[in-house]
């Protein structure tokens, strides 16, 4: 029980002393179990990565990739990141998971580079908690050096939510990432609550239109108008724009007519495992 109380105290941060209360037992025990399972997953190779291309609408060229984590659990089967990432984000476990992703992504990039595959930027999702930590930039820099990866092939996707927590710190970290030549995207744009004034304060490169707006963009709903507004905003601020979750030709046509040029979604490619992705990078049309 002392351990559990300490775990909680650690979770809540140092200057915020917490006292053990009996009603915490359940959640804390659950978290203990989860932590053990994640650690287990890391040592016994239950995580793996899949890759989804971002495609230029003009020539169908692959302009970049996004890496997405998968958890093949021995008894529960495939667990979606939408399920376990939010739980990992409640604690510093997310840093361990993100670091695993960064390490394995760079190792894979190095392999593709060595095999002569066309090089395109690869985007990793980094949780807000990790972004504002002291460890993200040194870790990335060390791994870039270890695998000899140039910053222009690295992109970080963060969601808007993080901007609310500590803008000044976000600006600081983003500037350090920029100094490494890394690109920064805002993921799921339009679903958070970022104020527009942040957009000009932050050294951003790309807005990714959330798939919830893309879904209905070609119908007579408001979503088409929202997409149009986001695309205009990006253009006015000199940011790149990517539409995510594109599933139909109608969506592509509509968004392209609004000025969107880069697309990611099942219509073009589903996320795929490393061998398929490697083959496509070796043979397929890509350009950077
Ligand atoms: P996200 O970064 O917004 O990723 C896009 C999600 O949409 C992915 O789900 C992708 O598989 C899915 N998707 C792509 N194209 C389509 C489409 O045409 N239709 C539909 N319906 N879905 C599409 P996934 O892989 O389940 O990931 C869910 C979320 O989990 C991600 O959202 C991201 O926020 C988080 N995530 C995934 N991998 C990682 C990771 O390595 N680290 C961290 N911190 N978060 C991750
Ligand atoms: Mg993403
Ligand atoms: Mg997204
Ligand atoms: Mg998402």
Structure description:
With 288 residues, the protein is of the alpha/beta class. The chain has helices at 2-12, 25-43, 81-88, 93-114, 128-131, 136-147, 161-165, 167-179, 196-201, 211-215, 223-236, 249-257, 274-283; strands at 47-56, 62-73, 77-79, 122-125, 154-159, 183-189, 206-209, 240-244, 262-264. The chain has an 8-stranded mixed beta barrel, surrounded by 4 helices. A hairpin with a 5-residue loop joins strand 1 and strand 2. Helix 1 (2-12) crosses helix 2 (25-43) and helix 4 runs parallel beside helix 6. The chain is globular, with a radius of gyration of 20 Å. The model is unreliable at 1-24 (pLDDT under 50). One magnesium ion (MG) binds at residues 66, 125, 157, 187. Its main location: membrane. It is found in: Membrane. It comes from Marinomonas vulgaris. Residues 31-285 form the EAL domain. This is Ammonium transporter.
Walk me through the topology.
Blueprint: H1 2-12, H2 25-43, E1 47-56, E2 62-73, E3 77-79, H3 81-88, H4 93-114, E4 122-125, H5 128-131, H6 136-147, E5 154-159, H7 161-165, H8 167-179, E6 183-189, H9 196-201, E7 206-209, H10 211-215, H11 223-236, E8 240-244, H12 249-257, E9 262-264, H13 274-283
One magnesium ion binds at residues 66, 125, 157, 187.
């Amino acid at each position: 029980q002392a351990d559990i109380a300490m775990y909680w105290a650690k979770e809540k941060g140092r200057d915020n002393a917490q006292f053990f209360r009996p009603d915490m037992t359940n959640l804390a025990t659950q978290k203990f179990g989860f932590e053990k399972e994640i650690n287990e997953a890391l040592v016994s190779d239950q995580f793996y990565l899949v890759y989804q291309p971002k495609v230029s609408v003009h020539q169908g060229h692959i302009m970049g990739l996004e890496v997405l984590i998968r958890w093949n659990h021995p008894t529960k089967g495939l667990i979606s990141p939408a399920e376990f990432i939010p739980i990992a984000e409640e604690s510093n476990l997310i840093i361990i998971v993100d670091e695993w992703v960064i390490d394995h992504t760079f190792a894979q990039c190095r392999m593709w580079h060595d095999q002569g595959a066309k090089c395109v930027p690869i985007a990793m999702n980094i949780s807000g908690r990790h972004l504002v930590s002291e460890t993200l930039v040194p870790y990335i820099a060390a791994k870039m050096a270890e695998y000899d990866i140039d910053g222009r092939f690295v992109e970080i996707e963060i969601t808007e939510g993080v901007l609310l927590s500590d803008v000044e710190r976000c600006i600081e970290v983003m500037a350090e990432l920029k100094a490494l030549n890394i690109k920064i995207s805002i993921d799921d744009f339009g679903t958070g609550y970022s104020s527009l004034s942040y957009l000009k304060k932050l050294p951003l490169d790309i807005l990714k239109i959330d798939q919830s707006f893309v879904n209905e963009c070609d119908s007579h709903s408001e979503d088409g108008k929202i997409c149009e507004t986001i695309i205009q905003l990006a253009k006015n601020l000199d940011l790149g724009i990517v539409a995510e979750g594109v599933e139909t030709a109608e969506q592509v046509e509509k968004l392209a007519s609004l000025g969107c040029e880069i697309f990611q979604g099942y219509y073009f490619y589903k996320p795929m495992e490393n061998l398929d992705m490697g083959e496509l990078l070796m043979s397929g049309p890509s350009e950077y």
